[in-house]
Amino acid sequence: MPHLARITIYPIKSFDGVALPNVKVLPSGALADDRRLAVCDAEGVYFNGKRSAVVHRIRSEFDEHLNTVRMSTDGTNALFHLASERELLCEYLSGLFGRPVTLREDLATGLPDDTESPGPTVVSTATLETVASWFPGMGMEEIRRRFRANLEIDGVEPFWEDRLYGEPGVRVPFRIGQVGWLGNNPCRRCVVPTRDPDSGEVWPRFARVFIAKREETLPPWAARSRFDHFNRLTINTLLDELGAGELRVGDEVSV
User: Fold this and answer.
1) 0.90 exceeded by the pTM?
2) Are 91 and 101 in contact (CB under 8 A)?
């Protein structure tokens, strides 16, 4: 039975995720608190893992209510309240990045890369297991941290999620529990998955191997026209007319 096996949100964009047993779906389609904050430079541009490998070396641990974050790296360890101590958090991060940074917040839609698809990213457990097998010594937790999907679906075959989009302009409806979604497109991957999620060091030939294997294993149900290149994995989504609600681990999934 296809079911929701894992929910992960990222309260601060590009930083560590938090696994949850359930999560509220906002009217925008975003998951509550997912990427609600982002670190920006003086020009307001995201200062993230795409721009700096330093991000990978910073561990962030949130309390159960997502009110505080403990940052640690290179011997430093500091706790910040996300509502009342943002200036102190920015000072701390500015010191790590070597330049002034600020925090931007959006509680309604979060701050996703794909603004046309503010819903969660979706992947299957079997897909992640398959991708991990392409890189000897790389386990599931590391693969999860490299690709940073929000929702993981189990009880399905590898690359099942490639059923959730069609030809250009075609969105595929599916449901998780009582919440309806539209699959929009296969997510274009950046440099982040090529890097070790702890050190930021690039895995030799990661991108070349991933792209070659992705093309080789692309399932017959995938709309090949959506692949101008094969550096794509996980599915970008948006909410359909069924409206917001709540997702829980164990929810049934249907297309």
Assistant:
1) yes
2) no
SS3 of the chain: the string is CCEEEEEEECCECCCCCEEECEEEECCCCCECCCCCEEEECCCCCECCCCCCHHHHHCEEEECCCCCEEEEEECCEEEEEECCCCHHHHHHHHHHHHCCCCEEEECCCCCCCCCCCCCCCCEEEHHHHHHHHHCCCCCCHHHHHHHHCCCEEEECCCCCHHHHCECCCCCEEEEEECCEEEEEEEEEECCCHHHECCCCCCECCCHHHHHHHHHHHHCCCCCCHHHCCCCCEEEEEEEECCCCCEEEECCCEEEC
> Sheet of 76-81: strands edge to edge?
59-62, 68-73, 76-81
- In order of their start, the domains of the chain are 3-32+111-254 (2.40.33.20), 37-105 (no CATH)
- pLDDT, one tens digit per residue, over 186-243 is 999 999 999 999 999 999 899 999 999 999 999 999 999 999 999 999 999 999 976 7
What is d(CA 123, CA 236) in angstroms, rounded to the nearest whole number? 10
